[in-house]
Amino acid sequence: MWRANLDRIPTLVALTRRNILFGDNICSMCGDTEESTDHIFTACIIANGVWDAICTWCNIPKGFLFSFQDIIEMANRVDGSRVRKQVVYGVIVLTCWCIWKARNEKRFNNVEIKVPKIVTDVKSLGYLWYRNRFNGGKVDWKGWNLFCIDIV
Ligand SMILES: [Zn+2]
């Protein structure tokens, strides 16, 4: 998150800027436009689909995501208990990581990108993180899938 927020991850635009990549710098996920940090995590149709699903699942307002900073601000707007805020923040970080991982799998291994697969990864990895972070947690898998975090 820290590196992405500083625009310090190796997107194709960043590699071109550093004279490491010459030629095509079109988004590895959608193929529509230049692959910048902001595009990968906000404007890309893949990222948009993932955020729609994640925000619906967590019941948080998505708002307008134009830049990576907007993702961090989305995390800061979350209401509810202290635990809920921590869990949503963790889910948002994990979502960014899963988007970046899917981008890399597409770019380097030509693995087809599917929004539902990324969302499933966020939910399943997120549950493992939640149980580890909150000493087993009080929400079971069914509750996690309904995001019943406020009842903790
Ligand atoms: Zn894209």
Automatic annotation (TrEMBL):
InterPro entries: RVT-Znf. Residues 1-51 form the Reverse transcriptase zinc-binding domain. PANTHER family: OS12G0587133 PROTEIN, REVERSE TRANSCRIPTASE ZINC-BINDING DOMAIN-CONTAINING PROTEIN-RELATED-RELATED. It comes from the Eukaryota. Keywords: Nucleotidyltransferase, RNA-directed DNA polymerase, Transferase. This is Reverse transcriptase domain, Reverse transcriptase zinc-binding domain protein. It holds the Pfam family zf-RVT. One of its GO terms (molecular function) is RNA-directed DNA polymerase activity.
